[in-house]
């Protein structure tokens, strides 16, 4: 699938690819992408399938997203890259590392482990609630955001999801994300990523100190599958660590990539 993307930095610089998470898009990573590009990297931020401005499909699983990424790299003749992924994007990045280790120099996984996640039920209920919103009733994106405030207690998540609302034409609003396809594939999204052979190249896992997406009991799984891993914790940050502590996140990433 052809993916929409944003690009920052000089063509001669070493490429870095950033993969957003569930409900996200390249827009969410622009400031971080620019900061990394300013450190002499060429940064690509694609929208994954069923998200942002990329194509929609009933198929949404890690093998498909790995194929999308491979096609993306090949189309731009990017033989090796540093690969960064958050949440769902982190699992895509890990599966890509297992399948095509020769295409990755360094791997960065933000607040997700290779294990199965227990967060799927909550996301299913959230998507069902969003699908019940009749966007034809609202005259602005802020109006939809206010309506989401009646569903969500987390204002940061409300603002994050509001970015998925856009004007399809002058008279009607729509969702950029394919909510139905994502809901129907949540079991795939929250499934584990596995490999018979570990990824032996350098890997950095960054977790939020307030997040439960990489609990201590899952660290042995990371050690087994990514024996050259490092683990960093950003204190005071939740699962959305890159949005809550962007400076610290960029600092950890750039230090690791420049080692």
Topology of helices and strands:
Blueprint: E1 5-8, E2 14-19, H1 30-38, E3 41-46, H2 62-75, E4 81-86, H3 88-99, E5 104-110, H4 120-131, H5 141-148, H6 155-162, E6 165-167, E7 173-175, H7 179-184, H8 186-189, E8 203-208, H9 219-225, E9 229-234, H10 241-244, H11 246-258
Helix pairs in contact: 2-3, 5-6
Structure description:
The chain starts with a strand and ends with a helix. Helix content is 37%, strand content 18%. The protein has 11 helices and 9 strands. The strands form 2 sheets. It has a 7-stranded mixed β-sheet. The chain has a two-stranded antiparallel sheet with strand order 6-7. Helix 3 (88-99) links the parallel strand 4 and strand 5 (104-110). It has 2 domains: 5-117 and 192-258, Alpha/Beta hydrolase fold, catalytic domain (Rossmann fold, 3-Layer(aba) Sandwich), CATH 3.40.50; 120-184, no CATH class. It has 259 residues and is of the alpha/beta class. It has helices at 30-38, 62-75, 88-99, 120-131, 141-148, 155-162, 179-184, 186-189, 219-225, 241-244, 246-258; strands at residues 5-8, 14-19, 41-46, 81-86, 104-110, 165-167, 173-175, 203-208, 229-234.
Overall spatial form: globular
How many strands appear in the DSSP assignment?
9
**Termini distance?**
34 Å
Q: Please tell me the CATH architecture of the largest domain by its name.
A: 3-Layer(aba) Sandwich
- The fraction of residues assigned to DSSP E strands is 15-25%
Strand order of the largest sheet: 1-3-2-4-5-8-9
The gyration radius over C-alpha positions equals 18 Å
CATH fold name of the largest domain: Rossmann fold
Please state the structural category.
Answer: alpha/beta
Biggest sheet record? 7 strands, mixed
CATH class of the largest domain: Alpha Beta
**Residue share in helix:** 25-40%
Count of the domains:
2
Q: What is the mean pLDDT?
A: 94
Please report the number of helical segments: 11
What would CATH call the homologous superfamily of the largest domain? Answer: Alpha/Beta hydrolase fold, catalytic domain
H/E series = EEHEHEHEHHHEEHHEHEHH
């Amino acid at each position: 699938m052809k993916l929409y993307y944003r690009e920052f930095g000089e063509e001669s610089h070493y490429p870095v690819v950033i993969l957003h998470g569930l409900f996200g898009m390249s827009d969410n990573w622009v400031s971080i992408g620019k900061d990394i590009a300013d450190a002499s990297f060429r940064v690509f931020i694609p929208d994954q399938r069923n998200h942002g401005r990329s194509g929609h499909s009933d198929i949404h699983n890690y093998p498909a997203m790995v194929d999308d990424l491979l096609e993306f790299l090949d189309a731009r003749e990017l033989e090796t890259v540093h690969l960064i992924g958050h949440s769902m994007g982190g699992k895509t990045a890990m599966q890509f590392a297992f399948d095509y280790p020769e295409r990755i120099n360094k791997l960065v996984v933000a607040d997700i482990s290779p294990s199965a996640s227990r967060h799927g039920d909550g996301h299913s209920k959230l998507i069902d609630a969003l699908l019940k919103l009749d966007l034809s009733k609202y005259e602005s994106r802020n109006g939809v955001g206010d309506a989401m405030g009646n569903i969500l207690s987390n204002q940061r998540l409300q603002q994050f999801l509001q970015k998925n609302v856009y004007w399809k034409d002058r008279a009607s609003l729509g969702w950029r994300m394919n909510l139905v396809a994502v809901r129907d594939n949540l079991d795939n999204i929250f499934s584990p990523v596995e490999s018979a052979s570990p990824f032996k190249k350098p890997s950095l896992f960054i977790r939020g100190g307030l997040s439960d997406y990489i609990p201590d009991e899952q660290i042995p799984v990371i050690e087994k599958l990514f024996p050259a891993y490092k683990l960093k914790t950003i204190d005071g940050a939740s699962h959305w660590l890159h949005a809550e502590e962007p400076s610290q996140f960029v600092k950890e990433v750039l230090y690791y990539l420049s080692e």
